[in-house]
Design a protein that fits this description.
With about 350 residues, the protein is α/β, with parallel strands linked by helices. About 50% of the residues lie in helices and about 10% in strands. Strand 2 and strand 3 form a beta hairpin. It starts with a strand and ends with a helix.
Length: about 350
Amino acid sequence: MEIIELLSAPVPFNRETLEKNTYLPVSIFDELGNYYTLVEDKIYKTSKEILISSVKQIFESNPKAKFPQSVQSMAEGRYKKMEKLMKAVPHFQKNRYLMEVPALQKTFIFKQYNELNFLLKKAITDLDKSHFEYMAAPALKRQTAYGDKNVNTALEEKYGIGLKKQDGKQLSETELQEAESIISAVFDFFKIPKDFAKKTELIISFTHNRSMKSARNAAGVFIPNYKAIGVSFSDGYNGNISESKKILAHETGHWIDALAGIDFSNYSSSTEGTIQSVLAASVVNSMNDASSSTAYWCESTECFARAFEEYFAVEALGDYSYFTRKFYCPKNEYESRIKPLVQLIISNLQNKL
């Protein structure tokens, strides 16, 4: 496939096609700052500035123009085009593992898609969010659900956390007891230092029947800019409280990942060279049914959180069904790779204070 380098001229986008793709071109970039864009079976190599100005010219000509949302909104067919582009660029062809391992390709493409989406939104629409907030949190943030209003401090002394209900009402005695049962199971198991949670002002916000604010139909959610975790009471799982505990373990993984990445302004699992990124890559490379996974299941942050969930489910609850679950790790890989890395990360957390 022909690669044309543009030093000053704009990328010759087809306006109709770019509008159909909600103004997000089929582009990838390398660590040297080169951007590669696929347009009608030709690849255009440009700088970041040229790519932005090329898209901006078409975007601003339509007052109703909008970029797609991040995370799980990749349009049908885009993945195949990005895969085709990646495999045609000599710079990426040099990476044998990227060329040969489908799971790594999915992680790479998914990350590139979201990074480009954020770059263009930031440059063209004056997006008022940091990269961390944009990549990590849902679009809607509700003070009532996750903010520091009406926070119950019953567990602050024991665990250093605040509790609340997402509807803004006070927790009943029954709800408080169930919340403590869920939290104690996870925080006692991971031995999370009380002062660590307290210094980070963590809030755990509960809801009923999985009616999660800002993340509809989600089992749980982590909202980094509110320093809050959302979890459903057991009525969201037909009264099975162990499911709520597993979800909290998963979201606690996201919280730990975010805290470890503060110095990078990103999740640590998404930062090359960290032990958290090694854990995420280990999950991608060893999980069940990897070949059938979508980009979401290969995202580094999700792989990291699933590792914490599986570790808790197996070691604390004795739920060995995880070894055969889709997108979790089989026993041999779990024992040899996942478990030791999770334990090391937890140990580092406990020694941090």
